[in-house]
Amino acid sequence: MTVPDERYPPVRTFKPRRRSLAPARAAMVERLAEHWALDQDGSMLDLPAMFGRDAPVVLDIGIGLGDTMIAMAQAQPELDVIGVDVHTPGFATSLARIGELGLTNVRVVHGDALEFVDRLAA
């Protein structure tokens, strides 16, 4: 994991556009996140254990509202897809759609992809 150095600001590949969610939407995100969301930070992920199978994994950075990520997961169920985005409403919309569709081959991360990749094996 990258250790912050106070002498240098962190490299950012985005401009944060975070805003709070309405209470009902925030509750929905909390409920669905238990099943489909991954933390940006933490230990190395065991992807086969997490997805329940050993399959190729696609990392989709900047998922927006999740349209492409979800279409890919539906069209290619043999792939496991991890989507990453910093935009809170897009993250929430993606979780809602994944939950509605019951997709098992998708996970989403609300955060910076540069930080999250430290959790993935080469």
What does this structure look like?
The protein contains 5 helices and 4 strands. The protein is α/β, with parallel strands linked by helices. Helix 1 (23-36) packs across helix 4.
- What is the strand arrangement across the widest sheet? 1-4-3-2
Shape: globular
Give the SSE order as H and E letters: HEHEHEHEH
User: What's the total helix number?
Assistant: 5
Structural category is: alpha/beta
Describe the structure in brief.
The protein is α/β, with parallel strands linked by helices and 122 residues long.
What are the SSEs and their pairings?
Layout lengths: L22 H14 E2 L8 H5 L5 E5 L5 H9 L4 E6 L2 H14 L4 E5 L2 H4 L6
Parallel strand pairs: 1-4, 2-3, 3-4
Helix pairs in contact: 1-4
Keywords:
122 residues; alpha/beta; 4-stranded parallel β-sheet; 5 helices
